[in-house]
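Course assignment 3, question 2. Fill in each field.
Student: A.L.
Task: Predict the tertiary structure for the chain below.
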Amino acid sequence: MIYVATADGWLDIGGTRVRCAVGPGGVVPAADKREGDGASPAGVWPMRRVLYRPDQGLAPSTALPLAAIAEDDGWCDAPDDPAYNRPVKLPYPASAERMWRDDRLYDLVVILGHNDDPPAAGLGSAIFLHLAKPDYAPTHGCVAVAREDLEALLAKVQPGDAVEIRGVGGA
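Answer field:
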């Protein structure tokens, strides 16, 4: 199944539309996505696996591969590093995003298969489906939803399911 997120702030989770946030740069064609541009990449991205923060609740119910986040987990966002768009352990010698966040946005994260097979330097990293801020403020290029909506989606998904990110009008 494909779950569709749109630039106008909606995610379809199997017949139910829920509010979502995308990047402040809107949705751009994946070929135009660049590291740090704040845009969400248009395309169909497989849901690779789920990460959760064990001190913030039980593991979600899902058929996807599941792992707990550790305090030293990071995600490399340095385009010139061999670990670009891959998980790393912190501290890491190159730029890397911390997965164990104080703002709790990554308490529940779905790793999306954008630019990962293999990663191309500079075409965007750490494109996730994660928890939204209470006001649904824009992400840095990810798709973000309320925790209860993400948990509902995770209960439905099967291996091979994907998230499609679309611009307004389906582009």
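Instructor remarks: The domain at 2-170 is CATH 2.40.440.10 (L,D-transpeptidase catalytic domain-like). The chain has one domain: 2-170.
Grade: pending
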